[in-house]
Every structure is written in C-alpha cells, then in structure tokens.
Amino acid sequence: MNCLIIGSGSWGTALGQVLADNFHQVIVYGINQNQVDDINLNHQNKAFFGDDVFLNPKIRATSDLKAAVKAAEVIVISVPSSAMRSVLNDLLPLLTERKYFVNTAKGLERGTDLRMSDVIRDVVSEDLRYPIVSLIGPSHAEEVILRQVTLLTATSLYLPTAEVIQTLFANEYFRVYTNTDEIGAELGVAMKNAIAIASGALAGLGYGDNARAALITRGLHEMSKFGVYFGAKPETFLGLSGLGDLVVTCNSFHSRNFKAGYEIGRANSATAFLENNKVTVEGIYATQVIYEIARKNNLELPIVNAIYDVLFNQAEPRLVVSELMLRPLKDEKQK
After folding, report:
1. What is the C-alpha to C-alpha distance for residues 74 and 130, in angstroms, rounded to an integer?
2. What are 140-196's pLDDT values in tens digits?
3. Segment 244-265 mean pLDDT
4. Residue 138 region, left (φ>0) first, then alpha (ψ -120 to 50), else beta?
5. Residues marked as catalytic
6. What was the pLDDT predicted at 334?
7. Cα torsion for 151, 155, 158, 161, to the nearest 10°?
C-alpha cells in the first residue's frame, strides 16, 4: 500500500521503516528540510538517531504535502497531540477520497479534553476516512529503528479496520494486536505519560526500586479508575496500552517524560526545567488536562494531583512525596 507518514521525527521515521520493511511504499512528510534531505540523500535521520543508524533505503521523504497526500492510501499521523488539530486542518483541503487514518499520538487535547481519535473525527468527515485506528503501546523509537522486538495494539471502534492496520504493520520484530476499547487504550497511553514524570522525579530524588514499583502500581490503579469512569473496560489497563506502556515509560531514559521528571527531581523543583525545556513532553499537557477533568468529575487521583502541584503550583517534589506517604490509611482495593 502507499503509506504517508506525517512527521519526520523519531517515531514517524521508525514506523516508516517498519512499513518499508513490509514492502509498502513509504513517504515521510516533514517540515524540516534538513531531515528530509538526510532521509533522501543519506538514508539516515541523524537528528534523532545519530550517525550510526541507517534506514531502509526505500523510504522517501518530502516537504510537498499536497503531492504526498494525493498518492497515499494510508496516512499515519506521528505528531505531538498539541499539533494534531492544526495538522488535520492542513490535510483537510487536500483530501478528495477516503483514506485510512492511523493515529500514533498519546495525549489529550487541551481546551476540548478530546482523545486523539475524537479530534480526527471532529475535523475529518466520514466520507474522507475509514474508521480511525490508534497504533499505540509500549514502544521506544530508538529500539524499533534497530528492529528490536516490539508489541503494540491497533485500537479501533471497528475491528475490521484495526485488522487492516494490524496486517499492514506486523512482521517478525513488530507484533500488533487488535483492541476495540478505544476509550481505555487512548486514556491509558495519555495518562501513563503523567505517571512517568513522577517516576522520573522519584529517580532524580534518589528513591529506589521500592518507591518506583509502588508508584507504577498505584499509577495503574489511577489509570484504571479514571478510564473506567469514562466507559473503558478494566482489563484494557492490564494490556499493552495500559500496564505495558506504563512500565516502559516509567523506567527508561528513552522516555522524554521520565527524563523530564528526572531533571525535576534532581533539582527538587520544576521551575528551571519548564523555563528551559525545548522539546515536547506529552506528560506535562496530559497532567493538566487530566487534573482538570478529574476536578470537574470529583475523581480523586492523588498521584496526578501531586504531579500537577509540582508542575503548575511550584510544589517541591520531595515535600509532595512526603504528603502522599502521610495520606489517611486505607484498604488497597478501596476506590
């Protein structure tokens, strides 16, 4: 199939390579001409993967969105959640027939509280797209680009379309499962980014494995509680887009969210990081949106509240940890 990747960053490039390895025609669209030229001329994307990683030579890149959209049967959108709506608005006037839309962003839209699939539905009408699929789960681009074993889910409200995308991407190193619980899967991968900031902060503060294991476990509890309230299935949070993505993001310096938390923890403050940060950290936006949604619906999410206080109320991470530990005692299963 003819596949267009919107976004020449690390994840878009890695997914483009998976598709090229599967003998599909791949065009990567990017706005950074240096990255486009690097892919075309050197079969590399050194901005993200350094000098030693070479791409499948069949991948092509372009900065001509109109031509790329016209030829595409499948459009994979690999941009930050904050850019999703503007990218879709750029795409919309170029669409003349139905395309497969694959979302890879793990976040929520600020201002509307919408999940990414809902943002796509809000912008692109049904006559121009097949049912939306989110390709999400525990995955670092730095490993996928090296063809290391990775498992994800193709999540869609319509199973046959999820199966199309499953078959499109699946190969010997990239295994794809299907899932129809769109609410649970998309809320899970958004919320785990917030929890990962907290995990990084614990590491930066010098806490050990015990503390991080507890955080992941209670973070999973909050993810499930939040998702089930909005109609998700509890078992989804024990799958790849729940526990799987939570574990990988909370334990790796490949994760921007973990790295952000680590710097915040080392400084015992978020102020310097927020003032100097130049990269997209999805967990920052997710924390704000989830905190606000929880407040509107009277949902108690102690970890999310604590992260919010650190990021937006200048609370000291070490003090916040103490406050969490001294909360009233309760049964583990208590909601």
Report:
1. 10
2. 999 999 999 999 999 999 999 999 999 999 999 999 999 999 999 999 999 999 999
3. 95
4. beta
5. 192
6. 72
7. -50
Q: Which residues contact 242 (CB under 8 A, 6 or more apart)?
A: 184, 185, 188, 192, 220, 223, 224, 236
Report yes or no: 39 and 16 within 8 Å, Cβ to Cβ: no
Domains of the chain: 2-180 (3.40.50.720), 184-325 (1.10.1040.10)
Average of per-residue pLDDT across 39-59:
97
The two three-digit tokens of residue 207, written as one number: 């806490």
d(CA 309, CA 211): 19
Measured distance CA(331)–CA(166) in Å, rounded: 40
Characterize the bridge pairing of strands 74-77 and 60-62. unpaired
Q: Which two tokens stand for residue 228?
A: 């089930």
- Look up residue 42 and give its two tokens: 């050197």
Tell me: the pLDDT tens digits for 203-253?
999 999 999 999 999 999 999 999 999 999 999 999 999 999 999 999 999
CA distance linking residue 63 with residue 246, whole number of Å: 34
Token pair 């200048």: residue: 314
